[in-house]
């Protein structure tokens, strides 16, 4: 009998050289995989992307916060503009008013999560987010997520659009965005009214909604899905 598991495989690159701008921003990719007893990847069932902005290290360097952000991308620097105050060398008044206590200046920005259609509805996305925060809450004082509906990002004729069946999602952009915001708030993220496009999680505070997320895969690999997987990946595969 094969035992299956869902694994989150993190990957990022670093290297030697001068302490240039990009060293302060770590881009991380995650493959969400279905694996067997031997940790062999049977199927990639999703992916995610996030970055860690090591703002604390920037503040102790010769560089400016927004010079580092813009060297990465103007898109990211635009998203983070309301979080950091380059003149005060720290968080903006908006963030400090929302959170009295933050462990450090580093930020984890979760940018994108995709799940294959067959594996939707099992809360894999929320479990992944909890895993990200579990693994990086010591390094990051604040977590943010940008809830943007994928169906308005991918081209309608692209392979990604078809593979993820994005055509089945909400066609109204305002409704789809609101639905995503409400979902992430329901699992524990906070809305800060002055920052409309991001939601936040501070690991310092008790969060009962977030605490209800479990990392068990029993509810994902239920008997119906297991029977289907046994047909696709029989013992002799």
Could you characterize the architecture of this molecule?
This protein has about 240 residues and is α+β, with helices and mostly antiparallel strands. It contains nine helices and nine strands. The mean pLDDT is about 90.
Précis, in short:
By secondary structure, the protein is α+β, with helices and mostly antiparallel strands. Helix content is 30%, strand content 24%.
Strand content: 15-25%
Low-confidence stretches: none
Trace the largest sheet across and list its strands.
1-2-3-6-7-9-8
What's the pLDDT, averaged over the residues?
88
Largest sheet: 7 strands, mixed
Total of helices: 9
Number of strands: 9
How many discrete domains?
1
Straight-line distance between termini: 12 Å
**Estimated radius of gyration:** 19 Å
SSE series = EEEHHHEEHEHEHHEEHH
Q: Which oligomerization state do the chains in this entry correspond to?
A: single chain
- What percent of residues adopt helix (DSSP H or I)? 25-40%
Helix/strand structural class: alpha+beta
């Amino acid at each position: 009998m094969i035992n299956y598991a869902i694994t989150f495989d993190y990957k990022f690159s670093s290297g030697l050289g001068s302490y240039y701008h990009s060293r302060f921003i770590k881009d991380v990719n995650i493959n969400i995989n279905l694996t067997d007893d031997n940790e062999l990847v049977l199927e990639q069932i999703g992916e995610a992307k996030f970055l860690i902005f090591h703002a604390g290290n920037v503040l102790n360097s010769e560089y400016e916060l927004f010079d580092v952000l813009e060297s990465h991308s103007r898109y990211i620097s635009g998203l983070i503009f309301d979080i950091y105050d380059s003149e005060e060398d720290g968080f903006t008044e908006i963030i400090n008013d929302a959170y009295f206590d933050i462990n450090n200046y580093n930020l984890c920005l979760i940018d994108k999560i995709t799940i294959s259609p067959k594996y939707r509805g099992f809360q894999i996305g929320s479990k992944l987010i909890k895993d990200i925060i579990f693994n990086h809450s010591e390094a990051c004082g604040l977590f943010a997520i940008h809830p943007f509906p994928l169906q308005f990002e991918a081209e309608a004729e692209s392979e990604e659009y078809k593979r993820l069946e994005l055509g089945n999602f909400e066609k109204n952009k305002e409704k789809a965005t609101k639905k995503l915001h409400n979902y992430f708030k329901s699992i524990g993220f906070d809305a800060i009214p002055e920052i409309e496009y991001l939601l936040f999680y501070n690991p310092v505070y008790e969060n009962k909604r977030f605490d209800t997320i479990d990392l068990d895969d029993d509810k994902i690999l239920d008997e119906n899905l297991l029977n289907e997987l046994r047909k696709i990946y029989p013992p002799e595969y």
